[in-house]
Amino acid sequence: MHSSISNSKTRVPSENWLPIWLGAALITLSVIVFFEANIRSLNWRPSLADSKDLWSEHRYIASQGKPLALVGASRIQLGLDVALAEQVLSRRVVQLAIDGSNFYPVLLDLMEDKTFNGDILLSINSEAIKNIDIADRALEWIDYYNNNSSSSYSPYRLIEKNIEKLIQENLVTRLEGATPFTVIKNIAIAVNNQGNYLTLLENRTRRGDYSMVEMPGFYYVRVGRHTKVELNWRNYDSWEQLDYAYLSEIEKKVMMDRELFVTNWKKVLGVLNKLKAKGVIVTLVRMPTDKLIWKYDQKVTPKGYYWSRIEEDWYRSVHFKDYPELSSFDLPDGSHISQKDQSGFTKKLLEVYKTLDL
What we know:
Layout: H1 18-41, H2 52-62, E1 68-71, H3 74-79, H4 82-89, E2 93-95, H5 104-112, E3 119-123, H6 126-130, H7 137-152, H8 155-170, H9 180-188, E4 198-200, E5 206-208, H10 217-227, H11 239-251, H12 258-277, E6 282-286, H13 291-300, H14 306-313, E7 317-319, H15 324-327, H16 339-355
Parallel strand pairs: 1-2, 1-3, 3-6, 6-7
Antiparallel strand pairs: 4-5
Helix pairs in contact: 2-7, 4-16, 5-12, 11-13
C-alpha cells in the first residue's frame, strides 16, 4: 500500500514562476507610473521629509572637518541654496536650521561639542533672542542626535537611509516618506488640490514656490500669524482695506520688553564668546522681511535699538537693511525668500559675508 503522504503521483507539478513575477512587477510599475503622472499633474513634486533623522545626519557632518554651519529657522533654510553656497565659498556647508524652532539650542549644542571645528552663519533676530528659553522641537532633535549618532552611521544603516532618500527625492508617491497608499488616498483622489509649494532637498535646502499658493490671501495669513492679529478678510471690501486694518493694529503694538531682551542677549553673547574662544567664527545675519511683516518688526523691535545693541557687542553681523543688494528682494509672504530668488540672494549674501574678512 502506498502512503498517501509520500505518493509521488500527488505532488504539485512544478511551474515556471518567472512570467508570473514579471507580470506582477509590470502591473506594479504601471500603477506607480500612472499615479506618479496623475499626482504630478496636480502640481505635487517629490520632497524629502525634514525629520530628526535627516537633521541628525547633517549634524554629524557638521562635526567632521571645518564646514560652515547654517543655524536658525525657516528664513535661512528657505533663503540659502546649500549647493550654491558650497560653490561660492569652496567649502562644505551644512544646513542645521530647524523650521519653527529657536536658534539657541543648536548654537549651544555646537558650543558644547568638542569635535565641532567649523564656523557658523547664524540667522538671528530680536524676537528670537527674547524666546531662547522656550522649549521647542530643536531640543528633541538634538537629544535624538546625541543619543543615536553612534548607531545611526553604520554602513548598513547609511545604505538604507541613502536608498530611502533616493526614492523620496524621485517619487512623488513617496512624498515626505509617506506610503504610496497614503499619498494616493490623500492627493490623487482628493479634491481642491493645489500642490506642495514647499520642497526639501537631501542637503536640507528648502524651496518655496509661492506661485503655487493663492495670493494675497496666503500673505495675509502669514501677517496674522506673525503679528498675532487675526482679521477675517471676509469683513473687508478689498485687500487694501484689510492691509490698512492690519497696519492700524500694528500701530497699537508696543516695544518688546527691553530688560528681557538684554538679559537673554547676554546669554547668547556668552555662548558666542565661548565659540570664539574655540576658534569658531560666528557671523550673525538678520534675514529679510518686508511689507507688513517688516512694519511689525520695526514697531516691536526697532532696528535702531535692538540690532544696534547686537552690533555694538558682536564683531561680525549683517543686517539686510544695511545692504541694498539684500533688501531689494520681494518676499511673497513678507517673511521668506522665494524659490526664484534663492540663488540670487545666496550669491548676494555670501558676497557680503566674504567682505567681512577683508
